């Protein structure tokens, strides 16, 4: 017979629910490894399952790239902006790339400050921050002073220390040997 089923023993009461809903979170996915954006898009799916309004702003990827996460995100109602024009080493005009990043940040700052979204993903924002294209202090202040219900996920390598300091959780993706790097080539389809 368990202790709680003995006469005169009452089970413990569960804790009372918090009176104030906890503040939103800031998550940073950084590091040399793969999966930073993928993890952020997983959070997008969870947010959509909770009927949250979601906005994704990509600072490097261009309109030329057609990727599955954008396609399904848009179908599910995600506001999606590609603010970049591709990798900097492919850019024919770095001044134009910088201008696009600055414009993308203005839209991102408005999305965060406006409070209409419960989740704003700043995909690959660390690159224009580190290159001086957008002001680190402005990004950090906007994130820190966001409305209480706005969650932010920032991704990219070499997250600036100030961004890490404002985060609730920082995940560092480590680079490990990928199967392809070891000469293992994936087969098409699944064998049963």
Oligomer: single chain
Q: For the residues shown, what is the average pLDDT?
A: 86
**Helicity level:** 25-40%
Estimated structural class: alpha/beta
Based on Cα principal axes, name the global outline: globular
End-to-end C-alpha gap = 49 Å
Main sheet: strand order:
3-2-4-5-1-6
**What fraction of the residues are assigned to beta strands by DSSP?**
5-15%
Q: Roughly how many Å is the radius of gyration?
A: 21 Å
Total number of helices: 6
Number of strands: 6
Order of helices and strands: EHEHEHEHHEHE
Low-confidence stretches: none
Reported for the largest beta sheet, the result is: 6 strands, parallel
Explain the overall architecture.
This protein has 192 residues and is an alpha/beta fold. The protein has six helices and six strands, in the order E-H-E-H-E-H-E-H-H-E-H-E. It has helices at 36-49, 68-75, 94-114, 126-130, 136-144, 161-166; strands at 26-30, 54-58, 79-82, 119-123, 151-155, 169-172. Strands 3-2-4-5-1-6 form a six-stranded parallel sheet, with helices on both faces. Strand 2 (54-58), helix 2 (68-75) and strand 3 (79-82) form a beta-alpha-beta unit.
Short account of what is shown:
The chain is 33% helix and 15% strand.
SSE topology sketch:
Blueprint: E1 26-30, H1 36-49, E2 54-58, H2 68-75, E3 79-82, H3 94-114, E4 119-123, H4 126-130, H5 136-144, E5 151-155, H6 161-166, E6 169-172
List keywords for this structure.
192 residues, alpha/beta, 6 helices
């Amino acid at each position: 017979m368990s202790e709680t089923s003995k006469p005169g023993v009452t089970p413990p009461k569960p804790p009372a629910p918090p009176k104030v809903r906890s503040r939103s979170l800031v998550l940073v996915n950084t590091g040399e490894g793969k999966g930073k954006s993928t993890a952020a898009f997983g959070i997008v799916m969870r947010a959509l399952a909770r009927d949250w309004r979601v906005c994704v702003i990509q600072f490097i990827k261009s309109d030329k790239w057609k990727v599955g996460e954008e396609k399904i995100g848009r179908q599910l109602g995600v506001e999606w902006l590609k603010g970049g024009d591709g990798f900097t080493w492919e850019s024919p005009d770095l001044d134009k790339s910088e201008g696009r990043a600055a414009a993308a940040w203005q839209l991102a700052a408005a999305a965060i400050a406006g409070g209409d979204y419960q989740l704003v993903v700043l995909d690959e924002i660390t690159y224009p921050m580190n290159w001086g294209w957008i002001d680190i202090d402005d990004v950090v202040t906007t994130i820190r002073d966001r409305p209480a219900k706005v969650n932010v996920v920032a991704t990219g390598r070499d997250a600036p220390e100030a961004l890490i300091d404002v985060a609730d959780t920082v995940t560092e993706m480590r680079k490990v040997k990928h199967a392809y790097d070891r000469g293992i080539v994936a087969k098409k389809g699944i064998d049963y």
